[in-house]
Every structure is written in C-alpha cells, then in structure tokens.
Amino acid sequence: MTLLRLIPLCLLALAACSDPEKVARYPIEPPAATKTLPNRLGTAELREVSLPQYATAQEIPYQTPDGALRSNPDNLWADDPARSITLALARQISAVSGATVLSDPWPLSDPPRRRIEVRIEQILPGADGALHVAGVYFVSPAGLDAGNDVVRRFDFTVPIATTEPGAAPTPAAIVAAQGAAVSELARRIAQLN
Fold first, then answer.
1. Which positions carry the signal peptide feature in this UniProt record (predicted)?
2. How many CB atoms are located within 10 Å of the residue 133 CB?
3. Domain holding 152: CATH number?
4. I need a labelling partner for 36 at 20 to 30 A (CA). Which of 10, 95, 104, 190 fits?
C-alpha cells in the first residue's frame, strides 16, 4: 500500500524537473541580405546540406576548453538543423545573387539548370571563441550536360560573441555565429569561389 502512495509523489517530482518554460528553441536566422553579386547560378536545386553528427542533434553543441563537445537539454534548435541550414542557405544565395535557388525536391515545372550539394564537415563552436566551418560544395549541371562541374573546399571561422573571456558562449551567440556562417557560405557559393 505504501508503494502505491509513492508513485504519485514520484510522478509529481518528475513533472517538476521537466519545466517546459525553461526550454529555449533557437531558429537559424542569417542577417538580411541584399543583391550584391552577379547571378552565376541561374536556377539551382540545393540538396539537403550534410552535417557532422554532433551538429544534427536538437541540442546546441559547444566545445569546452578540455576539447569535449557539450550541450544543454534546455537549449535546442527550433527546427531540424540540416533542414534549417538548407533552407536558410538557399534563401541567402538567392538574396545575394538574384539566382533562383530552392531546396530539394525541385518544386517548379521547369527543371533547374544546376544542382548544388554542400557537405559541411565541421561547424564547431570552438572553445577559442570562434565558429569553425569547413567542408566542400559541388555545383553541377542538372541535366544531361556534361562538364562545367565546380568543386570548392571552404574553411573559415566566424567570431562568437562572449560575455566574458573563458566563459562558454551563450546559445544566442552560437546561433548568431551560425547565421553569419550561412551568409558567408552563401556568398562563396554564389560567386563559385
């Protein structure tokens, strides 16, 4: 009989531990972009961006000085990270170049001229206060046309704003850095650079 009385107390204690108002969800929002580059892509289909495993989780990761990647279950991405980065990247490439870049599957009746594939090998909020982004992107003709393939590696960093030296970056600072990284990557792809 005492066991039956303990069950409701245990359930109440578990409910108190998981306060949904403590959970924060952050969208990836690159800064607003304006057309500053020529349209070198025309119409292009962007396949879903490939991310390293640690970057696909719902929790926002960051690196600590000991080299480990850590996260907090109260700080989550608002959407699936790969989907969110893909949509933001397509939007940014279109905005800076005037190209029509849409995510896969291609929704229009006329087929795209090109296909873009992005493989991000590293998108790491490092313990050094910078977001490290590295990988490769491919741009190829979408039809049967051979040639004119573009393969470019990228490797750059974006500073992460911190409140104090040595402190872990806030989720909002990591999100802002990722937005800036998406903008930088969009510019590189739009320039085929």
1. 1-15
2. 22
3. 3.40.50.10610
4. 104
The residues near 35 (Cβ < 8 Å, ≥ 6 apart) are 95, 96, 97, 98
Q: Cα–Cα distance between 190 and 41 in angstroms, integer?
A: 7
Instruction: Classify residue 58: in a domain, yes or no.
Output: yes
Sign of CA dihedral 165, 166, 167, 172: positive
Residue 16 lies in a domain: no
Number of independent structural domains in the chain: 1
Identity of the residue numbered 27: P
Are the C-beta atoms of residues 41 and 94 closer than 8 Å to each other?
no
**Ordered mean pLDDT values, 10 residues apiece, the chain (193 residues):** 56 50 89 92 96 95 92 94 97 97 94 96 94 97 78 97 76 95 97 89
Answer yes or no: is 10 within a domain. no
